[in-house]
Automatic annotation (TrEMBL):
<dbReference type="GO" id="GO:0003730">
    <property type="term" value="F:mRNA 3'-UTR binding"/>
</dbReference>
<dbReference type="GO" id="GO:0005634">
    <property type="term" value="C:nucleus"/>
</dbReference>
<feature type="region of interest" description="Disordered">
    <location>
        <begin position="13"/>
        <end position="51"/>
    </location>
</feature>
<dbReference type="GO" id="GO:0070129">
    <property type="term" value="P:regulation of mitochondrial translation"/>
</dbReference>
<dbReference type="InterPro" id="IPR033490">
    <property type="entry name" value="LRP130"/>
</dbReference>
<dbReference type="InterPro" id="IPR011990">
    <property type="entry name" value="TPR-like_helical_dom_sf"/>
</dbReference>
<protein>
    <submittedName>
        <fullName>Leucine-rich PPR motif-containing protein, mitochondrial</fullName>
    </submittedName>
</protein>
<dbReference type="GO" id="GO:0005739">
    <property type="term" value="C:mitochondrion"/>
</dbReference>
<feature type="compositionally biased region" description="Low complexity">
    <location>
        <begin position="15"/>
        <end position="42"/>
    </location>
</feature>
Amino acid sequence: MLGLGRNGLRKLASRRGLSSAAAQTSNTTSTPPPQQQIQKQSTDGRKNNFNKINKPFVVATPVEQLKLQKKYQENLESNKLDSLHEAVEYIEWRGTVFPQTVTKIVSLLERSSDLSTISDRQLAVLLSVFGATCDTLSRSIRAQHLEKVESILREKGVVLGLISRNQLIEAKVDNRSRVDAVEELGKFEESGVELDAKSYALLCEVYAKQANTKAITDIISHMKSSGIPLTEDHVAQLVYSVARSGNYGHVGRVVDTFSTSMNVVRLRCAAARAIAEREKNESGKGGFEITEMLRAIPTTAKLHSLENNVYVVNVLMDLIENGQFGAFNLLSSYLIVAESGTTLADNKLNLPVVARAKSLLSEGSLEEAIVLYSCVNPSYSNDFFVQNLNRQLENRLRDIDNTEALNEFLKVLTLAENKGLLPSANEFLLTGCSQNTVPMFAEIFDYVQQFGDIRSVFGQNPRLKKPIGRQLAQQLIKTVSPSEQAAIVAKIATVMFSPSTKETPEESRGFYQIMYKICGKDVKLVLPALDLMTSTVWHEKREFGTAIVQQLLRADAEDHLASEKLRILLESNKIGQLAGHRLHGFLTKFLMANKEKRVNLVAKILSYEFPPETLAKNTLKFGGRNVAKFLSNEIISVETAANIVNALEEEPRVQLSNEELADAKHVLKSYPEKAELLGKLKKSATMQRWRASKVSELLKELSHFTEESKEAVKLSLKRVILQKTFKEYHDDIDSLVNVLEQAVEWRKEKMPEALKTICKNLESYALSKAVSTNDLILADRIWQMRSGHLIPEVLLSYASRLFLNGEVERADEVCKDVRNSSKIIRPQTLEKMGRHLKGVESEKMTELAEYLKKSFNLSAKDARRVVLQAKKDQLNQLIERDDLAGALQMAIEETSTSGRAFGQIPLMIEAIKKNDAKTLQSVHTMVRSAHNQDMANVNLAYALIHSNNVNKAINLVERQNLSIESPTLQYFTTLASASENPILLKDLFIVFNGRASTLDLNNLLEMATRKLWSKNDMDSLTELSQVIESTSFPLQNKLRTFFDDLKGKNSTSSSVEFD
């Protein structure tokens, strides 16, 4: 040592600038590593022990190793080691060190009172676990443990020997901890330990990281003078330091100096690693410089030998760790690669790559770990790495709380998918969201949906539907905007009804009730949601529509609005198609509950068995067969079936080909009458053309038919003409009459009853239009062309017009026809007719009433109904002219004449509006005189309600202890309903709650809820609900269900049960 000794070396180091190493730390996580030898050295800076380390799990083992493995098998992933000696055996023979093993060794060292039984070699073995031996812990955590162990050993007075001291420094270098070479020299001196070649190699490595070439040359000079042999371990660090300082040109000269005695590949690769570290922050990551450095390796150096290629692998790993993700392609010509050219060849070079990938993963460098692991040959695939990667990705997914972090995470996921480590990034996202609460769930779902993977993910994993649907439903509860709510409903429907071969039809139908509840048992969210579901999710849209229709049919017995909701949904034309065959059972019950009113709704639902016209040519159709199956039910009569078919005939999408018709008739072979009806649904190209043409064009075409033309064809065209006339000429009375004149000629030939019925309806409609415009000339033409008895209401209006115009004889003729028809004239018909005769003076209306009374033997009360509307019109005109005195006088006179109060409601309302107490008192007195005090007060209460003085009305009713009779409440209900102000119905219930019969109030509530629901007035419905609850009003079953559902919808804690 040039006569310096240990103290002299330390002083030499101080004089020659041997400075402390810079601190290098990072954070990571873990998975179990492959076997590693304890005294592991850097393949560049330390002796190459590659052949002794990183052996695969499946290797030939001696008997003693098998014995020890069996002994510690149960403790492999636990911390059940009982002593430090067992830990040494475990580490030496097993090689794999888990995080819990590191923790256990720290604990054993803390508890041990006597460490004198542990040899220096054994202590080195224990210290090795705090370095690269445990690649399942991050460098920062290993460094923390090592610092603690060093403190424990110092407290317990343990003096480190050469082997353990070297191992301690090596572990610190592995962990990239701050290492002060001068300080370490001092510790060697204090311990009385002479440095060996390895010690100097470690100190050279410390200075190489700092690019302190001068310090390394001083150490090398000292070694030469001390007789310590110079090895590749030392020269490699010298080359690294020269390159690290940026003197790339000098590297070649240094390498050439030692090329005859040392491995050129190792030295050049050491320089390449230094370049990678120096250029890691540059755009190219030093890729060009590195390839130039490797290109200089002579062919005689055997670069592609297994022993030498390990150094190139180290360069590869450094480049990838520094962010050069194209490093494999960059270095592929220098690596031993598989035939595929995408991974390393099947050899032990994969082991350090797996180890480094796990180390990067443990430090949280996911992208680098993924890219590096993708270089590994499939034969060396590591399940622990993949499992830990998935675990870390799941943890990151749970912690994402902003868009920027999400975008970065999606890049990592996409990289993992592209590298084959994830079967599907989007499947991983949805699976993670289904198992955990993810703050960015909404954004993640939108990303997957925009990617177009929703159907494929849920098709393969139907088990994810409920948890994802549940999270979307929670979002729906928190959302206020109707448009946003509709968008969420559309998403839920897309999830729940994604087609899956792994799901049974019963399981799919199990989502029907869930979706119905999610939509609030209503269609207000369904309609905009259907709009948002495009043709790319036609199956999901069809199932969603089917689900809502089925649930509405099912709820008919409990929901008094079910029919109205169905009508709105079906008439919206937002449903593309329905799986109607699933609805037949519910549809039959729905039809039988009210056959007359529900035929059209049922037919509309059945029509959705057929695809839309735009898809009809390219879609398999089973509509005809399914309609036939529905009609084959014995409970459906031939008459009802005929009505259904007639309604289906009007649906453009209902088209049966010859094959479909034959198939449908085969289903109905036991019911020939029903089967014959289906012939109407066969629509040829000619029929389609007719339906698209104008009436005038069709009339012209019909005129070209000859006697040889088929009768069926002519009848079909006549039917189409009459049907289109209703739609095309509903306001053109002249055109209506023109078509009727053509129909007169048609009647000379044989006509089926259905066609005659259409003619009569058209005649009634045309006559009504002529009477309403007081065009008696046209009315007379229609009357003369009539094909039979028309609707009584229309004929009465026509007779009344004739009478009022002085044509009594013709009026007698019309009245006689009405009497001959034997049809009942109902009071409502007389009132409706009176409303059609607005503007006629009340004196003439009185004469008309007497005329009709004699003509039809009406009662005085019924006859009065005819003139009542005219008098009401006159009264309203006086009020509008602000002539309250004249209106009051008229009301008093009419009340005196009839003995019943007349015009009291509009007069009271106007008096309250004008704050005219005198007129209000006069009207009150008039009603009291005609009836009684209570009736006058009840009328006043309604007037107050109408004037938005509900509290005053309540006070009046309570103060006078009023009750209201059924006819009066029904009258007020009719008035409120006619005003198109459903709030009046609500207030009417609130005021008279408990003052009328429960049945009448339930009927009032049913009408109020129906109209308030149509207006979407949820505030008024909520107010009603609160009043009902506070007064414990006894609701009928349907209303109780309605308000229970309403209460559930308004509940902030409401949620949908998915299980």
